[in-house]
Amino acid sequence: MAGKYEAEGTGLSDWVTRKNIYTAAIVVGAVVLAAAITFGLLTLEDVQSFIDLALRLVSILAGIAVLVTAALARANVEPPARTPER
Predict the structure, then answer these.
(1) How far is CA 48 from CA 5, 19, 31, 43, in A?
(2) pTM for the complete prediction?
(3) By the number of CB atoms within 10 A of the CB, which of 2, 6, 73, 85 ranks highest?
């Protein structure tokens, strides 16, 4: 019987098959990136600037997440003005 996200008969219910597919995807991605750099389509400076941009975006998103979390937590610190009688 297939799991919730697995199709019967595809062979993807086997963890070894899924692991091999993921490994192949990683290898293909690395080969494409290496070929792009080797053939001059992508320079090392381009890669470094992309990493710099990604780090800036992640830091901005992390800062926003902290601000929203802190604001929500601060709003919920005080107890209710009165509790309903039972």
Answers:
(1) 37, 30, 18, 9
(2) 0.50
(3) 6
